[in-house]
Amino acid sequence: MRIKIQDKNNFLKTFNEIYPAHKIQDINGISIDSRMIESNDIFIPFAGGSFDGHEFINNVLKKDGTICLSEKKSTTSNRIICTPSNKNALLNLASSWRKKMKSEVIAITGSNGKTTAKELLYHIIKDQYKCSKSAGNHNSTIGLPLSLFNCNIDDDFTILELGANQPGEIKILCDFVQPDFSLITNISNAHIENFNSLKDIVKTKSAIFTSLKTSGIAFMNLNDKAISNISIKNKRITFGFNNKNADYNGIIKSNSKIKINDSIFNISGTISHLIETILAVYAICKTLGLNDNDFQKGLNSFSIPNGRGKVKNIDGLKIIDDAYNANPASMEFGIMRLSKTTCENKKILIIGDMLELGDSKIDEHKKIAKLINKSNIDIVLTFGDTIEYTMKELSNKFLYKEHFNNIDLLKKKFKEIAEKNDLIYIKGSRSMQLERIYN
What's the whole-model pTM score? Predict the structure, then answer.
Protein backbone atom coordinates (compact mmCIF):
# COMPACT_ATOMS: atom_id res chain seq x y z
CA MET A 1 0.00 0.00 0.00
CA ARG A 2 1.30 3.43 -0.98
CA ILE A 3 -0.44 6.77 -0.41
CA LYS A 4 0.44 9.81 -2.48
CA ILE A 5 0.62 12.92 -0.32
CA GLN A 6 -1.72 15.57 -1.71
CA ASP A 7 -1.14 18.45 0.72
CA LYS A 8 2.67 18.34 0.68
CA ASN A 9 3.45 21.62 2.44
CA ASN A 10 1.29 20.88 5.45
CA PHE A 11 2.52 17.30 5.64
CA LEU A 12 6.14 18.49 5.68
CA LYS A 13 5.36 20.89 8.53
CA THR A 14 3.64 18.12 10.49
CA PHE A 15 6.38 15.57 9.97
CA ASN A 16 9.21 17.99 10.76
CA GLU A 17 7.48 19.10 13.97
CA ILE A 18 7.41 15.49 15.18
CA TYR A 19 10.91 14.59 13.96
CA PRO A 20 13.00 17.81 14.16
CA ALA A 21 16.25 15.82 14.08
CA HIS A 22 15.25 14.24 10.76
CA LYS A 23 13.71 17.14 8.87
CA ILE A 24 12.82 16.50 5.23
CA GLN A 25 12.61 19.05 2.43
CA ASP A 26 10.38 17.18 0.02
CA ILE A 27 7.73 14.45 0.11
CA ASN A 28 5.93 12.40 -2.51
CA GLY A 29 4.27 9.55 -0.65
CA ILE A 30 4.22 7.18 2.27
CA SER A 31 4.21 3.40 1.95
CA ILE A 32 4.35 0.14 3.90
CA ASP A 33 5.41 -1.79 0.79
CA SER A 34 9.07 -1.42 -0.18
CA ARG A 35 8.26 -2.48 -3.76
CA MET A 36 6.11 0.61 -4.23
CA ILE A 37 8.61 3.14 -2.86
CA GLU A 38 9.46 6.15 -5.01
CA SER A 39 11.96 8.94 -4.46
CA ASN A 40 11.24 11.23 -1.49
CA ASP A 41 8.91 8.64 0.05
CA ILE A 42 8.62 7.58 3.68
CA PHE A 43 8.82 3.82 4.26
CA ILE A 44 7.16 2.31 7.32
CA PRO A 45 8.10 -1.40 7.59
CA PHE A 46 6.07 -3.95 9.51
CA ALA A 47 6.76 -7.56 10.36
CA GLY A 48 4.42 -9.96 8.58
CA GLY A 49 3.77 -13.65 8.83
CA SER A 50 6.29 -14.61 6.16
CA PHE A 51 8.64 -11.60 6.04
CA ASP A 52 9.81 -8.53 7.92
CA GLY A 53 9.69 -5.20 6.11
CA HIS A 54 12.80 -4.10 7.98
CA GLU A 55 14.80 -6.44 5.76
CA PHE A 56 14.16 -4.11 2.81
CA ILE A 57 15.27 -0.83 4.40
CA ASN A 58 18.65 -0.84 2.66
CA ASN A 59 16.96 -1.23 -0.71
CA VAL A 60 14.61 1.65 0.07
CA LEU A 61 17.50 3.93 1.00
CA LYS A 62 18.90 3.51 -2.51
CA LYS A 63 16.05 5.72 -3.73
CA ASP A 64 16.80 9.46 -3.53
CA GLY A 65 15.40 11.31 -0.52
CA THR A 66 13.73 8.33 1.15
CA ILE A 67 13.18 8.12 4.91
CA CYS A 68 12.60 4.88 6.84
CA LEU A 69 11.06 4.29 10.24
CA SER A 70 12.58 1.35 12.06
CA GLU A 71 11.87 -0.57 15.25
CA LYS A 72 15.42 -1.87 15.13
CA LYS A 73 18.30 0.30 16.37
CA SER A 74 20.49 1.69 13.65
CA THR A 75 23.28 4.26 13.41
CA THR A 76 24.05 3.67 9.75
CA SER A 77 22.00 6.53 8.34
CA ASN A 78 20.35 9.76 9.43
CA ARG A 79 17.56 8.76 7.07
CA ILE A 80 16.52 6.00 9.47
CA ILE A 81 14.25 7.08 12.34
CA CYS A 82 14.20 4.59 15.20
CA THR A 83 10.86 4.10 16.95
CA PRO A 84 9.65 1.81 19.79
CA SER A 85 6.65 0.95 17.61
CA ASN A 86 6.13 1.84 13.95
CA LYS A 87 2.40 1.35 14.36
CA ASN A 88 2.23 3.85 17.23
CA ALA A 89 4.47 6.22 15.28
CA LEU A 90 2.06 6.04 12.35
CA LEU A 91 -0.95 6.65 14.60
CA ASN A 92 0.83 9.59 16.25
CA LEU A 93 1.60 11.13 12.86
CA ALA A 94 -2.01 10.62 11.77
CA SER A 95 -3.31 12.15 15.01
CA SER A 96 -1.20 15.26 14.44
CA TRP A 97 -2.50 15.47 10.88
CA ARG A 98 -6.10 15.11 12.07
CA LYS A 99 -5.64 17.99 14.54
CA LYS A 100 -4.65 20.26 11.66
CA MET A 101 -7.64 19.23 9.54
CA LYS A 102 -10.38 21.84 9.28
CA SER A 103 -12.89 19.46 7.76
CA GLU A 104 -15.67 17.64 9.56
CA VAL A 105 -15.15 13.88 9.55
CA ILE A 106 -17.85 11.44 8.48
CA ALA A 107 -16.93 7.98 9.79
CA ILE A 108 -18.55 4.84 8.37
CA THR A 109 -18.32 1.27 9.61
CA GLY A 110 -20.43 -1.88 9.40
CA SER A 111 -20.24 -5.57 8.63
CA ASN A 112 -21.26 -5.03 5.00
CA GLY A 113 -21.55 -2.15 2.57
CA LYS A 114 -19.26 0.39 4.23
CA THR A 115 -17.00 0.85 1.18
CA THR A 116 -19.97 1.30 -1.16
CA ALA A 117 -21.63 3.72 1.27
CA LYS A 118 -18.44 5.77 1.46
CA GLU A 119 -18.04 5.84 -2.32
CA LEU A 120 -21.69 6.77 -2.93
CA LEU A 121 -21.67 9.54 -0.33
CA TYR A 122 -18.44 10.99 -1.73
CA HIS A 123 -19.75 10.79 -5.29
CA ILE A 124 -22.90 12.71 -4.40
CA ILE A 125 -21.43 15.49 -2.23
CA LYS A 126 -18.11 16.09 -4.01
CA ASP A 127 -19.66 18.53 -6.48
CA GLN A 128 -21.22 20.58 -3.68
CA TYR A 129 -18.41 20.59 -1.13
CA LYS A 130 -14.64 20.32 -0.94
CA CYS A 131 -14.35 16.70 0.06
CA SER A 132 -11.82 13.89 0.52
CA LYS A 133 -12.20 10.19 1.29
CA SER A 134 -10.09 7.33 2.50
CA ALA A 135 -8.58 5.32 -0.33
CA GLY A 136 -10.08 2.00 -1.44
CA ASN A 137 -10.91 -0.21 1.51
CA HIS A 138 -7.92 0.88 3.60
CA ASN A 139 -9.83 0.86 6.89
CA SER A 140 -7.52 -0.91 9.38
CA THR A 141 -5.36 0.45 12.19
CA ILE A 142 -2.58 0.71 9.60
CA GLY A 143 -4.50 1.36 6.39
CA LEU A 144 -6.76 4.13 7.69
CA PRO A 145 -4.07 6.39 9.23
CA LEU A 146 -2.07 6.02 6.03
CA SER A 147 -5.13 6.83 3.96
CA LEU A 148 -5.77 9.96 6.03
CA PHE A 149 -2.67 11.54 4.45
CA ASN A 150 -4.44 11.36 1.10
CA CYS A 151 -6.89 13.97 2.41
CA ASN A 152 -6.51 17.75 2.38
CA ILE A 153 -6.65 19.65 5.66
CA ASP A 154 -8.84 22.47 4.31
CA ASP A 155 -11.70 20.33 2.98
CA ASP A 156 -15.28 20.81 4.15
CA PHE A 157 -15.78 17.08 4.77
CA THR A 158 -13.59 13.99 5.01
CA ILE A 159 -15.29 10.60 4.59
CA LEU A 160 -13.49 7.73 6.28
CA GLU A 161 -14.18 4.00 6.29
CA LEU A 162 -13.39 2.21 9.56
CA GLY A 163 -12.98 -1.56 9.77
CA ALA A 164 -12.38 -4.01 12.60
CA ASN A 165 -11.52 -7.69 12.73
CA GLN A 166 -10.35 -7.55 16.34
CA PRO A 167 -12.11 -6.34 19.52
CA GLY A 168 -11.60 -2.65 20.29
CA GLU A 169 -10.18 -1.63 16.90
CA ILE A 170 -12.94 0.89 16.09
CA LYS A 171 -12.16 2.70 19.35
CA ILE A 172 -8.47 2.87 18.41
CA LEU A 173 -9.38 4.37 15.04
CA CYS A 174 -11.87 6.84 16.53
CA ASP A 175 -9.30 8.09 19.03
CA PHE A 176 -7.43 9.81 16.22
CA VAL A 177 -10.24 10.17 13.67
CA GLN A 178 -12.50 12.10 16.13
CA PRO A 179 -15.67 11.77 14.03
CA ASP A 180 -18.25 14.53 13.71
CA PHE A 181 -20.77 12.22 12.04
CA SER A 182 -20.97 8.43 12.33
CA LEU A 183 -22.81 5.70 10.45
CA ILE A 184 -23.01 1.95 11.07
CA THR A 185 -24.44 0.36 7.92
CA ASN A 186 -25.36 -2.95 9.61
CA ILE A 187 -23.97 -5.51 12.07
CA SER A 188 -23.59 -9.24 11.46
CA ASN A 189 -21.19 -12.02 12.43
CA ALA A 190 -18.46 -11.04 9.98
CA HIS A 191 -14.95 -11.75 11.39
CA ILE A 192 -16.57 -13.56 14.31
CA GLU A 193 -13.54 -15.86 14.50
CA ASN A 194 -11.75 -13.07 16.37
CA PHE A 195 -14.67 -12.22 18.68
CA ASN A 196 -16.33 -14.14 21.51
CA SER A 197 -19.84 -13.40 20.29
CA LEU A 198 -22.02 -11.14 18.17
CA LYS A 199 -22.44 -9.02 21.30
CA ASP A 200 -18.70 -8.34 21.25
CA ILE A 201 -18.91 -7.28 17.61
CA VAL A 202 -21.69 -4.85 18.49
CA LYS A 203 -19.59 -3.46 21.33
CA THR A 204 -16.63 -2.89 19.02
CA LYS A 205 -18.71 -1.29 16.24
CA SER A 206 -20.65 0.92 18.67
CA ALA A 207 -17.47 2.84 19.50
CA ILE A 208 -18.04 4.84 16.32
CA PHE A 209 -21.12 6.31 18.06
CA THR A 210 -19.79 6.60 21.60
CA SER A 211 -16.59 8.29 20.36
CA LEU A 212 -18.42 11.12 18.63
CA LYS A 213 -17.64 14.69 19.54
CA THR A 214 -20.14 16.29 21.91
CA SER A 215 -21.81 18.04 18.98
CA GLY A 216 -21.60 14.94 16.78
CA ILE A 217 -24.49 13.14 15.09
CA ALA A 218 -25.11 9.39 14.90
CA PHE A 219 -26.99 8.01 11.89
CA MET A 220 -28.88 4.93 13.08
CA ASN A 221 -30.37 2.14 10.99
CA LEU A 222 -33.64 1.24 12.73
CA ASN A 223 -34.02 -1.90 10.61
CA ASP A 224 -30.97 -3.36 12.34
CA LYS A 225 -31.92 -4.34 15.90
CA ALA A 226 -28.33 -4.51 17.07
CA ILE A 227 -27.74 -0.91 15.96
CA SER A 228 -31.05 0.54 17.14
CA ASN A 229 -30.43 -0.81 20.65
CA ILE A 230 -27.07 0.97 21.03
CA SER A 231 -27.28 3.59 23.78
CA ILE A 232 -25.66 6.91 22.92
CA LYS A 233 -25.70 10.43 24.34
CA ASN A 234 -25.35 12.28 21.04
CA LYS A 235 -28.05 13.49 18.69
CA ARG A 236 -29.53 10.65 16.64
CA ILE A 237 -30.84 10.81 13.10
CA THR A 238 -32.68 7.63 12.23
CA PHE A 239 -33.57 5.91 8.98
CA GLY A 240 -35.34 2.70 8.08
CA PHE A 241 -37.77 1.08 5.70
CA ASN A 242 -41.49 1.04 6.47
CA ASN A 243 -40.83 2.74 9.78
CA LYS A 244 -42.94 5.82 10.48
CA ASN A 245 -40.85 6.55 13.58
CA ALA A 246 -37.71 7.03 11.50
CA ASP A 247 -36.56 10.53 10.57
CA TYR A 248 -36.11 9.17 7.04
CA ASN A 249 -38.66 6.50 6.22
CA GLY A 250 -38.03 4.53 3.05
CA ILE A 251 -40.72 2.78 1.02
CA ILE A 252 -39.91 0.62 -2.00
CA LYS A 253 -42.40 1.61 -4.70
CA SER A 254 -41.00 -0.69 -7.41
CA ASN A 255 -37.71 -2.14 -8.67
CA SER A 256 -36.83 1.28 -10.02
CA LYS A 257 -38.38 3.69 -7.53
CA ILE A 258 -37.95 4.40 -3.84
CA LYS A 259 -39.89 6.90 -1.74
CA ILE A 260 -38.11 8.59 1.18
CA ASN A 261 -40.51 10.68 3.27
CA ASP A 262 -42.26 12.79 0.60
CA SER A 263 -39.63 12.43 -2.14
CA ILE A 264 -39.48 9.78 -4.86
CA PHE A 265 -36.20 8.77 -6.50
CA ASN A 266 -35.48 6.74 -9.62
CA ILE A 267 -33.04 3.87 -9.06
CA SER A 268 -31.29 2.29 -12.04
CA GLY A 269 -31.04 -1.48 -12.31
CA THR A 270 -27.29 -1.40 -11.69
CA ILE A 271 -27.77 -0.10 -8.13
CA SER A 272 -31.28 -1.31 -7.29
CA HIS A 273 -29.80 -3.82 -4.82
CA LEU A 274 -28.28 -0.93 -2.83
CA ILE A 275 -31.52 0.52 -1.47
CA GLU A 276 -30.41 0.28 2.18
CA THR A 277 -27.17 2.08 1.35
CA ILE A 278 -29.05 4.70 -0.65
CA LEU A 279 -31.39 5.40 2.27
CA ALA A 280 -28.48 5.76 4.72
CA VAL A 281 -26.58 8.10 2.39
CA TYR A 282 -29.71 10.17 1.80
CA ALA A 283 -30.08 10.75 5.54
CA ILE A 284 -26.52 12.07 5.67
CA CYS A 285 -26.87 14.18 2.53
CA LYS A 286 -30.01 15.90 3.77
CA THR A 287 -28.32 16.61 7.11
CA LEU A 288 -25.44 18.23 5.20
CA GLY A 289 -27.88 20.42 3.29
CA LEU A 290 -28.06 18.78 -0.15
CA ASN A 291 -31.29 19.05 -2.12
CA ASP A 292 -33.17 16.19 -3.75
CA ASN A 293 -32.19 17.18 -7.29
CA ASP A 294 -28.49 16.93 -6.47
CA PHE A 295 -29.08 13.59 -4.77
CA GLN A 296 -30.92 12.17 -7.79
CA LYS A 297 -28.21 13.49 -10.11
CA GLY A 298 -25.60 11.68 -8.03
CA LEU A 299 -27.56 8.42 -8.10
CA ASN A 300 -27.87 8.62 -11.88
CA SER A 301 -24.12 8.86 -12.43
CA PHE A 302 -22.85 6.52 -9.70
CA SER A 303 -20.85 3.44 -10.66
CA ILE A 304 -20.32 0.60 -8.19
CA PRO A 305 -16.65 -0.11 -7.32
CA ASN A 306 -15.12 -3.24 -8.84
CA GLY A 307 -15.65 -6.42 -6.86
CA ARG A 308 -18.58 -4.96 -4.91
CA GLY A 309 -21.45 -6.32 -6.96
CA LYS A 310 -20.80 -4.45 -10.19
CA VAL A 311 -22.46 -5.89 -13.29
CA LYS A 312 -20.08 -6.63 -16.15
CA ASN A 313 -21.00 -7.70 -19.66
CA ILE A 314 -18.29 -10.01 -21.00
CA ASP A 315 -18.64 -12.00 -24.23
CA GLY A 316 -22.41 -12.04 -24.01
CA LEU A 317 -22.41 -13.04 -20.34
CA LYS A 318 -23.79 -10.81 -17.59
CA ILE A 319 -21.45 -11.23 -14.60
CA ILE A 320 -22.18 -9.81 -11.17
CA ASP A 321 -18.69 -9.41 -9.72
CA ASP A 322 -19.01 -9.49 -5.92
CA ALA A 323 -15.72 -11.30 -5.42
CA TYR A 324 -14.03 -8.81 -3.13
CA ASN A 325 -15.10 -10.43 0.14
CA ALA A 326 -17.77 -12.56 1.80
CA ASN A 327 -19.45 -13.28 5.11
CA PRO A 328 -22.78 -15.00 5.91
CA ALA A 329 -24.87 -11.83 5.73
CA SER A 330 -23.39 -10.56 2.47
CA MET A 331 -23.51 -14.05 0.94
CA GLU A 332 -27.20 -14.33 1.77
CA PHE A 333 -27.81 -10.88 0.29
CA GLY A 334 -25.99 -11.83 -2.90
CA ILE A 335 -27.79 -15.14 -3.37
CA MET A 336 -31.15 -13.43 -2.94
CA ARG A 337 -30.09 -10.76 -5.44
CA LEU A 338 -29.28 -13.43 -8.03
CA SER A 339 -32.49 -15.32 -7.31
CA LYS A 340 -34.70 -12.22 -7.71
CA THR A 341 -32.97 -10.81 -10.82
CA THR A 342 -34.65 -11.58 -14.13
CA CYS A 343 -32.56 -13.48 -16.65
CA GLU A 344 -32.96 -14.50 -20.31
CA ASN A 345 -31.14 -17.80 -19.81
CA LYS A 346 -29.49 -19.71 -16.92
CA LYS A 347 -28.59 -18.35 -13.50
CA ILE A 348 -25.16 -19.57 -12.40
CA LEU A 349 -23.87 -19.18 -8.84
CA ILE A 350 -20.11 -19.43 -8.23
CA ILE A 351 -19.12 -19.10 -4.58
CA GLY A 352 -15.99 -19.64 -2.50
CA ASP A 353 -15.10 -20.02 1.17
CA MET A 354 -16.24 -17.50 3.77
CA LEU A 355 -13.29 -16.99 6.09
CA GLU A 356 -12.80 -15.74 9.68
CA LEU A 357 -15.88 -17.57 11.01
CA GLY A 358 -14.06 -19.57 13.69
CA ASP A 359 -15.88 -22.53 15.20
CA SER A 360 -19.09 -21.64 13.37
CA LYS A 361 -17.61 -21.92 9.87
CA ILE A 362 -19.10 -25.33 9.03
CA ASP A 363 -22.58 -24.42 10.31
CA GLU A 364 -22.56 -21.11 8.47
CA HIS A 365 -21.60 -22.77 5.20
CA LYS A 366 -24.37 -25.34 5.65
CA LYS A 367 -26.91 -22.56 6.27
CA ILE A 368 -26.02 -21.01 2.92
CA ALA A 369 -27.05 -24.28 1.25
CA LYS A 370 -30.56 -24.02 2.69
CA LEU A 371 -30.97 -20.60 1.10
CA ILE A 372 -29.64 -21.78 -2.27
CA ASN A 373 -32.04 -24.74 -2.23
CA LYS A 374 -34.97 -22.33 -1.92
CA SER A 375 -33.75 -20.10 -4.77
CA ASN A 376 -34.43 -20.33 -8.48
CA ILE A 377 -30.75 -20.65 -9.35
CA ASP A 378 -29.96 -23.19 -12.08
CA ILE A 379 -26.27 -24.07 -11.62
CA VAL A 380 -24.00 -23.97 -8.57
CA LEU A 381 -20.20 -24.17 -8.66
CA THR A 382 -18.18 -23.99 -5.44
CA PHE A 383 -14.47 -23.43 -4.85
CA GLY A 384 -12.36 -23.84 -1.71
CA ASP A 385 -12.25 -26.02 1.36
CA THR A 386 -15.11 -25.19 3.73
CA ILE A 387 -17.55 -24.33 0.95
CA GLU A 388 -17.65 -28.06 0.16
CA TYR A 389 -20.00 -28.39 3.15
CA THR A 390 -22.39 -26.13 1.24
CA MET A 391 -22.21 -28.35 -1.83
CA LYS A 392 -22.93 -31.49 0.20
CA GLU A 393 -26.15 -29.95 1.54
CA LEU A 394 -27.52 -28.94 -1.88
CA SER A 395 -30.57 -30.74 -3.22
CA ASN A 396 -30.72 -32.50 -6.59
CA LYS A 397 -33.01 -29.93 -8.20
CA PHE A 398 -30.22 -28.04 -9.99
CA LEU A 399 -29.36 -28.45 -13.66
CA TYR A 400 -25.75 -28.93 -12.60
CA LYS A 401 -23.64 -28.62 -9.44
CA GLU A 402 -19.99 -29.38 -8.73
CA HIS A 403 -17.27 -28.55 -6.21
CA PHE A 404 -13.69 -27.61 -7.14
CA ASN A 405 -10.39 -27.27 -5.32
CA ASN A 406 -8.47 -26.29 -8.46
CA ILE A 407 -9.14 -22.86 -9.98
CA ASP A 408 -8.09 -23.95 -13.46
CA LEU A 409 -10.55 -26.83 -13.47
CA LEU A 410 -13.27 -24.45 -12.27
CA LYS A 411 -12.48 -22.01 -15.07
CA LYS A 412 -12.58 -24.85 -17.62
CA LYS A 413 -15.99 -26.03 -16.40
CA PHE A 414 -17.30 -22.47 -16.35
CA LYS A 415 -16.33 -22.00 -19.99
CA GLU A 416 -18.05 -25.25 -20.88
CA ILE A 417 -21.41 -24.47 -19.31
CA ALA A 418 -21.70 -20.66 -19.67
CA GLU A 419 -23.79 -19.50 -22.63
CA LYS A 420 -24.93 -16.21 -24.08
CA ASN A 421 -27.42 -14.31 -21.88
CA ASP A 422 -26.53 -16.32 -18.78
CA LEU A 423 -26.46 -14.39 -15.48
CA ILE A 424 -23.48 -15.29 -13.29
CA TYR A 425 -22.97 -14.24 -9.68
CA ILE A 426 -19.45 -14.61 -8.19
CA LYS A 427 -18.65 -14.24 -4.49
CA GLY A 428 -16.09 -15.43 -1.95
CA SER A 429 -13.62 -14.17 0.61
CA ARG A 430 -10.74 -12.10 -0.73
CA SER A 431 -8.15 -14.88 -0.66
CA MET A 432 -10.33 -16.96 -3.00
CA GLN A 433 -9.66 -14.43 -5.80
CA LEU A 434 -12.69 -15.66 -7.72
CA GLU A 435 -12.38 -12.86 -10.25
CA ARG A 436 -9.76 -15.13 -11.83
CA ILE A 437 -12.66 -17.08 -13.34
CA TYR A 438 -13.36 -14.41 -15.95
CA ASN A 439 -10.13 -12.35 -15.99
Answer: 0.82
